[in-house]
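Annex B. Sample input.
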Amino acid sequence: MKKQLFSLVLIAFSVSAIAQNNTLEAKTKELAAAKVSMDAAKAKVDALSADVASLTPPIIWKKGGFGALNFNSLGLTNWAAGGVESNSITALGNIFRNYKKDKVSWVNNLDLAYGLIQNAGQGIRKNEDKIDLFSKIGYQASKKLNYAALANLKTQFAEGFDFTDETILDENRNAISNIFAPATLLASLGMDYNFTDYFSIYLSPATGKFTIVANDSIAGQDIYIPSSVDENGKRYYENNFRSEFGALFNARFKKDLTERINLASTLNLFNNFTDVNTDNRKNVDVNWETMVNMKVTDYIGFSLYTNVIHDDDIDIQLYDDAGTPTYSAARTQFKRLLGVGFSYKF
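Annex B, continued. Sample output.
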């Protein structure tokens, strides 16, 4: 009886092992067949993708931009901590048109801004004004390196005034800026290295910088073109126009950090190594602009703009504690513009 039971158990194990082997063999064959089908499907997908890519017209022009209208209103009634009621409005805009075909690329960007503010007891005053047109054309030398030419024009829309001395009535103030007073134009030849599609560095040993002050009364204040004279009492530069030649470093970063946040930043460094005033040849002009745009909803947005400028040729009027003008000197300039309002990206 024991021998018969043992035989039955042995037969059962043998049948189970054979069944498992058959199942394993079947699944192995099934897996191999599936892999063959998958490889064939992948090859077909790759071939179709290549066909679609070859038949799809290339995107030669990429275009877009954004517009924003920001508001700010502060009202105070019996406010113990003090303060000044104010209302302000700022319009911001950006348009870009970029071309890419074969070895030729062309980047174009226009930034516009204009803002007004009214504090209680004061008239309407300008607190933002910018026209910035940038264009760069390149010819591919290697995968990431381009021969390039660059042009950049900066000016403003309307008159600007110095409000540091509050004892002067607004109607008696002299304008210190206006359209094309000043305007700066950079024209340059160099090499452009594209680390990625959103970050590039441009270097040029051959850059012309031209400062234009197309208003005689503003030019006569010697704010934007220095009034230095040589040992013979002769001015180094004319009031209305100054040309410089030197080297330029330009770094540009523009990227959508998320679906709703965009960061754009540009740094310009210029050195005039042919300045007729040899003491100025060691100075570097700095202009660093950064813009952050964040969409809160489809039509409500937040924007932050900063601008750092240092130019030894631009004198800033300084005042003592009593508000009396003392002397003027070059200073690092900083501007910040923070706004929330209507925005639209296109």
